[in-house]
Write a structure and sequence with these properties.
The protein is α+β, with helices and mostly antiparallel strands. 36% of the residues lie in helices and 13% in strands. The protein has helices at residues 35-44, 52-59, 71-77, 98-111, 132-142, 149-157, 164-175, 205-210, and strands at residues 4-5, 17-18, 23-24, 50-51, 81-83, 87-90, 113-114, 130-131, 160-161, 178-180, 186-188. Strands 4-6-5 form a three-stranded antiparallel sheet. A two-stranded antiparallel ribbon has the order 1-2. A two-stranded parallel sheet has the order 3-9. The longest helix is centred in the middle third of the chain and has 14 residues, at 98-111.
C-alpha cells in the first residue's frame, strides 16, 4: 500500500503516516448513541455473568436474532459489556434510569479512545490509542483556522474518518467541551485539555472495559 508522511504538530508528538483510501470508524453506525439507545441496550443485556454460549442463546431473541450483526458492536464500544475467553461480563447489574445513563455517557465521552478492540477498520499506525475527545481538543487548539471535524479526523487518524455523524452526535450530546455545527465545524466551549495518549493495548478487551469503571 502506498504511504506518505505528515506531521500533525499535536502535543503528543505523533508523527503520523497517512494511507490513501483508508477509512477509520471511531464508532459503528447502527444507531446514534442516544440516551434512549443506551437504556434500551442495558435493558436487554443480561445483568449477571454467563457463559458465552448462554449469552448468545439469551441474545438470540432480540432484534430478530440480529444482535450480533451490528448492535453488539455499539454495546461493546460503549463499554456495556465484554467477553473474555470463557464468559460474558456486564457493566450494570440493573436496568438504568435516564439520569444514570446520562452520567455514564458523560464519563464515557471523557474516556473513550481509538483504536480499541471494537473498532473494526482503519487506525493504521495509531500507537498508542488516542483519547477521542482530547485528541480533537488538542487539534482545535493547534489548528484554530481549520475547525472541521472531518479534517481533524483525517489529521488524527491518518485517513478519512468514517461515521462522522455518529461522532458529531456524541460530541454534542456528552462532551460539554466541543460543539459541532451543521457544517461539521467544531467550536471549543471551554478550554479544557486532557491526556491524549491512552497506554492500553488496542486489542485488550478487559482493559478497555475497565477504562470506564469508577
Amino acid at each position: 500500500m502506498e504511504e506518505y508522511h505528515t506531521n500533525t504538530n499535536n502535543q503528543s508528538g505523533r508523527n503520523m503516516i497517512k494511507y490513501p483510501k483508508t477509512k477509520s470508524d471511531p464508532l459503528c453506525k447502527w444507531r446514534n448513541a442516544s440516551i434512549e439507545t443506551v437504556i434500551e441496550l442495558v435493558s436487554i443485556l443480561p445483568k449477571t455473568k454467563l457463559t458465552k454460549d448462554q449469552f448468545r442463546e439469551c441474545m438470540s431473541k432480540f432484534y430478530n436474532g440480529a444482535f450480533f450483526r451490528t448492535p453488539y458492536q455499539l454495546a461493546l464500544q460503549l463499554g456495556l459489556y465484554y467477553e473474555d475467553d470463557n464468559e460474558y461480563i456486564p457493566r450494570f447489574d440493573h436496568d438504568i434510569t435516564e439520569e444514570e445513563a446520562i452520567a455514564y455517557m458523560k464519563k464515557w465521552m471523557q474516556r473513550y479512545y481509538v483504536p480499541n478492540p471494537f473498532t473494526k477498520r482503519g487506525f493504521i499506525n495509531i500507537t498508542p490509542p488516542i483519547n477521542l475527545l482530547y485528541g480533537l481538543v488538542d487539534y482545535l487548539e493547534n489548528h484554530p483556522d481549520k475547525p472541521n471535524l472531518i479534517t481533524a479526523g483525517a489529521a488524527l487518524f491518518g485517513g478519512e474518518m468514517g461515521n462522522v455523524g455518529c461522532v458529531k452526535f456524541v460530541l454534542n450530546e456528552y462532551s460539554q467541551i466541543i460543539e459541532v455545527d451543521h457544517n461539521n465545524d467544531m467550536k471549543l466551549l471551554v478550554n479544557k485539555s486532557g491526556k491524549i495518549d491512552v497506554l492500553n493495548n488496542r486489542d485488550d478487551k478487559q482493559a478497555f472495559f475497565k477504562h470506564f469503571n469508577g
